[in-house]
Design a protein that fits this description.
Blueprint: H1 2-46, H2 70-73, H3 80-88, H4 104-113, H5 123-139
Helix pairs in contact: 1-5, 3-5, 4-5
């Protein structure tokens, strides 16, 4: 009886460790996919280092912000909700003023519908992609 209990306990512990490792790997994959989307869609304006110095920044009305200091500019707290809304862009963000930044939520949806973004085109997959981009921005805060 005690050996059965020991095997059960070992099995539960093994399942927990595997679950944690899979969760960690998924988080790493999301950050990597967020980084890939940043490099593909954001770096032209925000720069490869996300400091607002991309090759297309010169033609904008307002310079792109340094995205590595978003948390610093908000008293040490990354403004996840507002950054997510700004990136998605399908809902108006009144504090943003005129919008030169593309509406990435709409773009990601178009890509998904055409089979280009690796997503199914549903809102859940669009949200995952935007959230991965936000997670990447969180990972580069200074």
């Amino acid at each position: 009886m005690s050996s059965s209990r020991g095997r059960l306990t070992s099995g539960i512990l093994l399942a927990a460790v595997i679950s944690l490792e899979i969760g960690s790997a998924c988080a790493d994959d999301l950050t990597r996919s967020g980084e890939a989307d940043f490099n593909m869609y954001c770096a032209d304006c925000h720069g490869d280092d996300a400091r607002g110095n991309g090759p297309r920044a010169f033609g904008l009305t307002a310079p792109p912000p340094d995205l590595t200091r978003l948390a610093e500019r908000h008293e040490g707290v990354f403004p996840r909700e507002s950054v997510t809304a700004l990136i998605d862009g399908r809902a108006s963000v009144s504090t943003h003023g005129s919008r030169e930044m593309p509406v990435w939520g709409k773009w990601f949806k178009i890509e998904a519908e055409e089979g280009l973004g690796g997503a199914e085109g549903d809102e859940g997959s669009i949200r995952k992609r935007v959230n991965a981009l936000v997670d990447y921005l969180i990972s580069i805060q200074e």
